[in-house]
Amino acid sequence: MIPNPSVSPLLQGAEARLSAVVDTLVKQGFAIVPGFVDSDTCRELAAECRTFRDQGEFHRAGVGRGEMLEVRPEIRSDEIRWLARNDCGPLQGDYLDLMAAYQQVLNRELFLGLVEFECFCAVYPPGSFYQRH
């Protein structure tokens, strides 16, 4: 297959990679895929996240949902920034596209009805943690 220069490298060959993940999920109940996102792209994504953190756009992570959401530093001490299509870096947008493609593959191949997904960047400074709760 000839790479399409107008498509992000993160999305090149995504359909085949995602189908392989689904196959592994079906066989094992979980999937660990070394290199699913190449190391250069991971470094670039981390750099985008660092830029947002340097701009003060991360906040203390909480536990719970909706009105039950609360910051509980004894349970979780990381900092996060939610990824949103209308407010993200270019590579983060490509990552969201990859996750949307993954959602479609899961729905198609496993007959799921996933209608949305959430993604965030997390920073764990030295000594921080996320306890089971």
What would you say this structure looks like, in words?
- With 133 residues, the protein is mainly α.
- The protein has one domain: Jelly Rolls.
- Helix content is 39%, strand content 8%.
- The protein is built from 3 helices and 3 strands; from the N terminus they run ααββαβ.
- It has helices spanning 14-28, 39-54, 90-110; strands spanning 59-60, 79-82, 120-123.
- It has a 3-stranded antiparallel beta sheet, with helices on one face.
- Helix 1 packs across helix 3.
- The longest helix has 21 residues, at 90-110.
- The protein is globular.
- The model has no long low-confidence stretch (mean pLDDT 90).
Strand order of the largest sheet: 1-2-3
CATH class call: Mainly Beta
The CATH homologous superfamily corresponds to q2cbj1_9rhob like domain
The gyration radius over C-alpha positions equals: 17 Å
Tell me the major beta sheet: 3 strands, antiparallel
Structural class: mainly alpha
Number of domain modules: 1
Shape: globular
Q: What share of the residues lie within helices?
A: 25-40%
Distance between the termini: 46 Å
* CATH-level-2 architecture: Sandwich
Secondary structure: number of strands: 3
